[in-house]
């Protein structure tokens, strides 16, 4: 019942197992421990009287010469020691016997795919406490602990996979709905990456020319955010991680306080309050065009599946940039062709009068270039004549019109144009 009610958290299951085991086996202590290949630690403990506090939360090194749990973990087999008075005890176990009066113990490893991931330990003050029926019952508790761990792992993996797929679909949706603007895509990527990886902060940066620009980031606090924004744009030469990711490599700083971390990154980490970093480049045709930076408050390396997830987000950012570039180039080309066609149409419809053509050219140039104003001049017999312009304000338009015609020699710009220079 506890397993079914707690599919994402094994702790309630562990607590229920040790309580039930201690009661039914009438043992002095039932303990569940987890291990990681190098150490083991206690996660749940109970005695006949009920739950017991975990007095030692730190991890113990796996050493078969030092303690009995390590022997069961290494051997990957149940270790039954019915009478401690009849065997040599390692120092760790000798202290336990002296402190708690233990005289018998049963250590049952939790195995998954041939690897030990934990241990169910049952101890008693009487020698020979655990017969065949008690061992069989303890094995059922061990199996339930394994079921709970496996259920939680599968549930969380499925949940993470679904979240990744949903995030990917959401970002693709943003890309589709924003074909000309990459900013919403960058903001969605920063937010999704930070949430799914359990990051402290995430930023998307772009390489433009010789400078690094901050494109999007997840906020932490007002002061740190303002300092972050003030740090960019900055020359690529002043940003050491660029040199690290320029060949397309993913770079991690497991601890920003390490000596090999560039001073700039260490200062930013201290200011914003994180201890580990992951840099994933945005690569387009083999060239780095930006990067995604993910940070965490705790030191340590990022899991392989999290690194792969950020790589997926980086690929989506590149898709968005490429899409926007192609879309805008196509749109601009179409606008140019349309404007050219319109002006040719004006020329054809006004063969004896150039004024409508000049008016159309001024309006089209101003619109397509995003100009503030555009003018068309003619240079005739050393004089500059205003032939067309796009209006700004009545006062300014009047001054412009009253200024011309006037000698070309009055303006260096007109002299350069007369010489054929842009």
Topology (SSEs and partners):
Layout: H1 2-5, H2 11-25, E1 29-35, E2 39-47, E3 50-51, E4 60-61, H3 68-75, E5 79-81, H4 91-100, E6 104-112, E7 115-124, H5 132-177, H6 183-197, E8 201-208, E9 211-217, H7 222-230, E10 234-235, H8 240-245, E11 251-253, H9 263-272, E12 276-284, E13 287-296, H10 304-349, H11 355-368, E14 375-380, E15 383-389, H12 394-403, E16 406-407, H13 412-418
Antiparallel strand pairs: 1-2, 1-7, 2-3, 2-4, 5-6, 6-7, 8-9, 8-13, 9-10, 11-12, 12-13, 14-15, 15-16
What does this molecule look like?
The chain has 422 residues and is an alpha+beta fold. The chain has 13 helices and 16 strands. Strands 1, 2, 3, 4, 5, 6 and 7 form a seven-stranded antiparallel β-sheet that branches. A hairpin with a 2-residue loop joins strand 2 (39-47) and strand 3. Helix 5 (132-177) runs parallel beside helix 10 (304-349) and helix 10 (304-349) runs antiparallel to helix 11 (355-368).
| Average pLDDT over all residues | 89
Strand portion: 15-25%
Stretches where pLDDT falls below 50 for ≥5 residues? none
Helix and strand succession?
A: HHEEEEHEHEEHHEEHEHEHEEHHEEHEH
Tertiary shape: elongated
Main beta sheet strand tally, sense and closure: 7 strands, antiparallel
Rg for CA atoms? 36 Å
What is the number of helical segments per DSSP (H or I, 4+ residues)?
Answer: 13
| Classification by helices and strands | alpha+beta
Counted beta strands: 16
The helicity comes to: 40-55%
Query: Separation of termini?
Result: 82 Å
């Amino acid at each position: 019942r506890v397993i079914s009610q707690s599919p994402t958290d094994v702790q309630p299951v562990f607590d229920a197992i040790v309580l039930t085991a201690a009661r039914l086996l009438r043992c002095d202590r039932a303990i569940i421990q987890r291990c990681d290949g190098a150490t083991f630690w206690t996660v749940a403990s109970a005695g006949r009287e009920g739950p017991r506090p975990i007095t030692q939360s730190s991890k113990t090194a796996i050493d078969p010469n030092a303690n009995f749990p390590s022997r069961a973990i290494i051997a990957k087999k149940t270790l039954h020691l019915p009478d401690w008075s009849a065997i040599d005890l390692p120092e760790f176990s000798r202290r336990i016997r002296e402190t708690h009066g233990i005289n018998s113990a049963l250590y049952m490893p939790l195995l998954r795919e041939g690897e030990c991931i934990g241990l169910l330990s049952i101890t008693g003050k009487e020698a020979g406490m655990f017969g065949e029926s008690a061992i069989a019952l303890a094995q059922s508790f061990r199996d339930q602990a394994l079921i709970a761990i496996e259920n939680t792992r599968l549930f969380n993996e499925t949940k993470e996979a679904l979240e990744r797929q949903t995030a990917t679909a959401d970002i693709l949706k943003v890309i589709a709905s924003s074909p000309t603007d990459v900013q919403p895509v960058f903001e969605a990527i920063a937010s999704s990456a930070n949430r799914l990886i359990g990051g402290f902060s995430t930023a998307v940066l772009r390489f433009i020319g010789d400078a690094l620009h901050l494109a999007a980031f997840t906020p932490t606090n007002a002061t740190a955010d303002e300092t972050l924004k003030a740090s960019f744009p900055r020359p690529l030469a002043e940003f050491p991680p660029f040199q690290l990711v320029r060949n397309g490599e993913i770079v991690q700083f497991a601890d920003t306080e390490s000596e090999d971390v560039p001073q700039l990154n260490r200062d930013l980490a201290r200011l914003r309050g994180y201890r580990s970093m992951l840099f994933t480049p945005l690569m387009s045709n083999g060239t780095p065009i930006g990067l995604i930076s993910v940070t965490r408050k705790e030191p340590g390396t990022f899991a392989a599946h999290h690194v792969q997830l950020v790589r997926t987000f980086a690929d989506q950012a590149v898709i968005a940039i490429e899409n926007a570039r192609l879309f805008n180039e196509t749109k601009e080309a179409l606008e140019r062709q349309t404007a050219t066609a319109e002006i040719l149409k004006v020329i054809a419809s006004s063969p004896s009068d150039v004024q409508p053509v000049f008016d159309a050219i001024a309006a089209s140039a101003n619109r397509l270039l995003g100009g503030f104003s555009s003018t068309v001049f003619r240079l005739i017999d050393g004089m500059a004549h205003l032939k067309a312009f796009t209006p700004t304000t009545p006062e300014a338009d009047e001054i412009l019109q009253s200024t011309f015609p006037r000698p070309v020699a009055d303006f260096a710009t007109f002299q350069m144009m007369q010489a054929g220079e842009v």
